[in-house]
Amino acid sequence: MCGICGFVNLNGAVAERGIIERMNNAMLHRGPDDAGVRIDGDTAMAMRRLSIMDVAGGHQPIANEDGDVWTVFNGEIYNAGPLREALQQQGHHFVTSTDTEAIVHGYEQDGIESVHALRGMFAFAVHDVRPDAGRRLLLVRDRLGIKPLYYHLDDRLLAFASELTSLLQHPAIARAIDPLALNQYLATGIVASPRTMFKGIRQLMPGHFLLLEGAQVVERAYWTLPSVAGVAAGFDEAVQRTRSLLEASIGEHMISDVPVGAFLSGGIDSSTVVALMARASGKRFPTFSVRFQGSGYDESAYARQVAERYDTEHHQFSVPDRGFNEELLRAMISHHGQPTADSSALPTFMVSTLARRHVKVALSGDGGDECFAGYSHYGWLHGIARLYGIPRPLRAGLLGLLRGAARATPLGGMAALRQPINALEASLQGRHRLPLEVLRLNDAGSIDALLMPAWHSDDTAVWQELDEELAQTSGADAVAVAQRFSCRYFMPDAYLPKVDRMSMAASLEVRVPFLDHRLVEYALSLPGHMHWQNGVGKRVLRAAVADLLPEDIFTHRKQGFSIPLHTWADDHYYALAEELLNEAAVTRRGIFDAHAVRQLIRRCRGIEPRRAALESEYRLSHRLFQLVVFELWCRMYLDDLPAGPAPVDVERLLAHG
User: Which residues in the chain land under pLDDT 50?
Assistant: First the structure.
């Protein structure tokens, strides 16, 4: 696990060592064990290393035998052993036992096509200086987007990095907001790749490579999500195949030269990982969980059941109900490099800090909900799909009547109207947009009301790239559409960045065995009814691991890994919101309407009544959190620029509130 960065001066100017060193030093937390820099004319590459495989000998950048193909690599290649054997048989000579070297020799043997043989999580750069290659730089990101890779491209410069803060250390990269990205963030709390909040910076898409060859740059997909219902399998066959793929994936993900543990929340996914780890290893290993005191988000009792059943060395981190801390929020933002309204990043930071005291590597259950349809809104989407049997004009008319009723409904009657209104609104969009409409925090009208006119964006343009990719799923069943939406948008743009940034903030490598691409391909090729039926999700997964887990793990209410945002909003938090979003500050920034922001704060605090039937306490609290995070980000990244995220003593912050 590492952080990588580099750049090519497309005008031929010699690369400056000072620039690449600043970029690399901004990622010290990603690799405190080692660092490496290579400059070759107009090209510079660097890495920070967290030593997991071949701890003593895996220094990067790593070259082939002739020293004319070089790579920097972030991630893990779980089938590096078999690849090494095959490449040695083809005449390649290895000088380390690190998985990084398999990338170099694989590229040397098969070029870009070598990426198809890789199983793992990865982002890497290959600099090919062989005489017949000309100027060639290859950037590659893994199939599901587990590892990050950002880049900037103009007519003078191609630059890349694992984190935005690193990329922004290059003086030629400007810091300006992308209005479409801002609209995406206000709609859902995240920015959809390939965009970032910075106008001149893109994300390399999951399953894509970018190739600079001579003066030409191309970006292409080498892997895509599988087609819907591509496997004609019976339920029993699907269960057996799923179990087999899980066992193989978790066995591979445990490969390490340093101690390995696991996150254990008490849900089906993390409990499955722990159970199969215990069976595969036959040894005792540590598990880690976070418990929120005094909230409804506590699954610690279920985590303990699994820990006791498999005799793990269980560690629980109790978070006192003390509200927000500005220093912790700043740390979350600085490690992401752009705004994110996913408050579960905070407990992920906490549990990663706890785990790092004991291990360098931890396995997690992330990806199980996306692959096996575990989210409750999948079932709701299935119900919405039935609305398509009603003619569109009738749906639109009914929506208007319900909206009118909502405006006249007392606050206590909100719940009865909220779901049918949301369902009808969603049904008027293209079917592939259903998951987006259901999960919105703000609709297009609310966003325009919040923004100053100069920042308004057409909703079609905001989601054009996502629409183009997902439109092909329109004919699929609602569950299959939702799975692909999650795997294309929320997982790589929210959940996986959260896990990567918050774990690497603690210098911890987190592995996600549910996202082995073979398992993902199989799970997503099954029809939706195999995953969700009669109000119950994860049917295939539940049956596949039924013998491994206590009954309570399958029957207790799913709670997720979030903080109680609306109950943590204490006087200190509102004072922070008032300071950050005061009228003078908002007016000076020139992005939001100061009156609309003031009204939002007053409604969150209960000073003014909430408007209409759809303004739940949950949605209001998350809308305010979005703005607090955004303004903090503006102050950190637009008004100033950090040289790198500052280390944070999480336990000290929690102890003192």
Answer: 411-413, 612-614, 656-657
Range(s) of the domain holding residue 119: 2-221
Q: Give the DSSP H/E element, type plus range, for residue 307.
A: helix 300-309
d(CA 38, CA 227): 42
CA distance 623 to 441: 7
Give the C-alpha separation, 626 to 185, whole Å.
8
Which whole-number Å values give the CA distances from 272 to 173, 300, 547, in the listed order? 44, 16, 10
Which structure tokens are listed for 636? Answer: 């950190």
How far apart CA 621 and CA 598 sit, in angstroms, is 14
Q: What pLDDT score does 609 carry?
A: 63
Is residue 98 in some structural domain? Answer: yes
Phi/psi zone of residue 101: left (φ > 0), alpha (ψ -120 to 50 degrees), beta? Answer: alpha
Please report whether residue 185 resides in a domain. Answer: yes
Rounded to a whole number, what is the largest CA-CA distance in the chain? Answer: 77
Strand ordering across the sheet containing 157-161: 34-40, 43-49, 2-9, 157-161, 150-153, 202-203
What pLDDT is recorded for position 460? 86
Question: What is the structure's pLDDT at 412?
Answer: 41
Cα–Cα distance for residue pair 537/542, rounded to 1 Å: 9
Residue 480 to residue 525: CA distance in whole angstroms: 9
DSSP string computed for 442-498: S-HHHHHHHB-GGG---HHHHTHHHHHHHGGGTTS-HHHHHHHHIIIIIIIIIIHHH
Q: Is 227 helix (H, G, I), strand (E, B) or coil?
A: coil
Residue 365 lies in a domain: no
Coil, strand or helix at 393: helix
Helix (H) or strand (E) holding 552: helix 551-555
Type of residue numbered 619: R
Return the CATH number at 161.
Answer: 3.60.20.10
Which residues on neighbouring strands pair with residue 260, listed in sequence order?
361
Distance from the Cα of residue 458 to its chain's centroid:
26
CB–CB of 442/596 below 8 Å?
Answer: no
Q: Is residue 232 part of a domain?
A: no
Q: Which of 221, 244, 262 is the last residue of a domain?
A: 221
CA distance to 109, 255, 509, 512, per residue, from 520 (Å): 28, 20, 21, 12
Catalytic residues: 2
> For the CA atoms of the chain, what is the radius of gyration?
24
For residue 223, what are the contacts with CB-CB under 8 A and spacing of at least 6?
Answer: 116, 143, 207, 517
**What per-residue confidence (pLDDT) applies to 317?**
81
pLDDT at 348: 86
Contact 504, 335 (CB under 8 A): yes
- Number of structural domains, the chain? 2
Sign of CA dihedral 19, 20, 21, 22: positive
Closest CA to 517 of 497, 487, 496: 487
